[in-house]
Amino acid sequence: MSGFIIGRIKSIKYAIKGFFLLLTTENAIISQVFIGLIFTGLGIYFDLSRVDWALQFLAIGLVLSIESLNTAVEKICDFIHPEYHTKIGFIKDVASGAVTFAALTAFAIAILIYGPYLA
Ligand SMILES: Nc1ncnc2c1ncn2[C@@H]1O[C@H](COP(=O)(O)OP(=O)(O)OP(=O)(O)O)[C@@H](O)[C@H]1O
Predict the structure, then answer these.
(1) 2-118: what fold?
(2) Can you tell me which residues bind substrate (predicted)?
(3) To the nearest whole number, what is the mean pLDDT of the chain?
(4) Whether 67 is catalytic
């Protein structure tokens, strides 16, 4: 049992390490965190409802999570095959496509939340 708990604590430690690695080394993540902060500021300005806040945080978290996994896929690709290869190109494009799904979802949520304020 104590081995299980120590294992879980180590996993959390590595997860937090990865979290800070993404925040300090990956420009795509840094810029998306910046956009997330802008929307957090807008949320405060427009005094969003609790549900709108929840949806906005969900959208920001979704984009950051998928972008982080996309970064991991890119790193694996660059590690296992740094040279040009059409299959690597396909894998990277598909991983980026996942980010596009998340970004379009976040865009739709932003329109639903802020559309009425802009109209
Ligand atoms: N080794 C490769 N072989 C074939 N195509 C590649 C290769 N590396 C990159 N590409 C192509 O270039 C695109 C961009 O790849 P890259 O690794 O530069 O990611 P990126 O989207 O610019 O991400 P980031 O800015 O986070 O590094 C890929 O989606 C793919 O189409």
Answers:
(1) Helix Hairpins (1.10.287)
(2) 67, 96
(3) 96
(4) yes
